[in-house]
Amino acid sequence: MSMLEPLDSEIAALFGRERSEHRQEPMAREEVLHRAERAIRLAALAPPPGDLALPPSLPAPPRGLLGGASAKVLLGVALAAAFGGGVVVGRASAPTPTSPSPSFVVTASRSESPSPSPSEGGPLSIEASALPPAPPAPSAPSASSAGPRARPDDTVSDLAREQELVDTARGALARGRAAEALAATERHSARFPNGALAEERDALAVQALALDGRIDEARLRASRFTARYPRSIFRPAVERAATPQKQIP
Amino acid sequence: MSPIPLVAPPFRELFVAHFDFVCRTLRRLGIREADVHDVAQELFVAVNRGLASFDQTRPVRPWLVGYAVRFAANYRRLGWNKSSELTDETAASSPRLTDRLATRQLVLRGLDALDFDKRTALVLHDMEGVTAPEIAAELGVPLNTVYSRVRLARVAFREALRALESAAEGDAR
Q1: I need a labelling partner for B9 at 20 to 30 A (CA). Which of A98, A144, B107, B128 fits?
Q2: Of A15, A62, A115, the CB nearest to B127
């Protein structure tokens, strides 16, 4: 027998009453909508899920807030480059049930909820091969160079300042404040033209220009970006921003 | 100044129309009340990505159900619900359980007695009216498996309700 008997009336009535008790508050709905849309915009700074080392059975990466996460990855790359290391960066501080051990882990945070994502296993894993090449690090000259050697403290301090500017730009972008975001990227450019976070800064600048409606400038900057960083994890987001008709993932 | 349309055009409309449904389904599939909005948020972010490839001639709810089931399954698999097997609002110990628990809490507690596959089948088929063929298609299981799960789930759910009522009567004496 394949067909089902009708649900008995007592249980059906119980389910009907139960359903009426599930209404969501309009404020909660608005809040979640706001957070989801913000996450979608920030996730545009990350590669599409297919580029990440997620099991194919999973529907989506967990917290989509890869803006901050990608910055952490780059920060890790930059720190590794600055200190002459360069292999293990941004590794998870604690193992997760699904994280394969050789993975780099992006730990995206969300201010509204300190608890880790329950839906897909917490941190996203990015295979080492998916990471962008370390950005040029002119502030870390080779041992044979004649100039004064950068001290690690200075490098870390600069990275912190860079990070602050990039965070400012990203936050402004997330709030739809294109001019503010662009200003932050320009301050970064002026102070750290070849900084460790230049790649993310340039990606944010393209997004900010597009958000501001300056599509031609965004396209020009996007073209330079892809030429300079052909394997960037930000490339899909940059290309989407500069190509409005193809922006849906 | 126009915002970057990273959010698919139908996204907001879809969100508003189905947010309650998604939250209700997640809750019934075992997501704790405290986590439902976080999980729903992530689910809709994933849905936005999927919109580009979604065949808009298809009904939306069975498609969303597929997301809800996967998110709920991962939530359970990763043990995020273990800290509160008796879920937040159903953990009340009461001399008259049925007097104290709202209908929703009673139902959720009954659902907690089912394994995930049966729970999913009952929630989708009997509580949300998703057809068995739609469930089979979204979950990738044979149609007869869906029917079987719904039947077994109904039996198990009735038994769970009876057990809850017996417990309540025992407490009352």
Answers
A1: B128
A2: A15
- Nearest residue of B to residue A58, measured between CA atoms: B70
A231 within a domain of the structure (yes/no): yes
Name every chain B residue with its beta carbon within 8 A of the beta carbon of A211: 1-4
* Full residue range of the structural domain in which residue A74 is found: 45-136+149-246
* Of residues B11, B50, B107, nearest to A18 (C-beta): B107
Considering the domain boundaries, does residue A30 fall inside one? no
Write out the two tokens for B7.
Answer: 């959010």
Answer whether A210 touches B (CB < 8 Å). yes
Whether the per-residue pLDDT at B37 is higher than 80: the answer is: yes
B96 min Cα distance to partner chain A (Å): 18
Is pTM beyond 0.90? Reply is: no
Report pLDDT digits (tens) over A22-79: 778 888 888 898 888 878 877 665 544 444 333 333 333 333 333 333 333 333 333 3
A225 occurs within a structural domain: yes
The chain A residue lying nearest B80, using CA atoms, is A118
| CA–CA dist A137, A54 (Å, integer) | 30
In total, how many domains does chain A have?
1
Please tell me the distance from the alpha carbon of residue B12 to that of residue B55, in angstroms, as a whole number.
17
End-to-end, the C-alpha distance of chain A in Å comes to: 44
* ipTM of this complex: 0.79
User: What is the end-to-end Cα distance of chain B in Å, rounded?
Assistant: 69
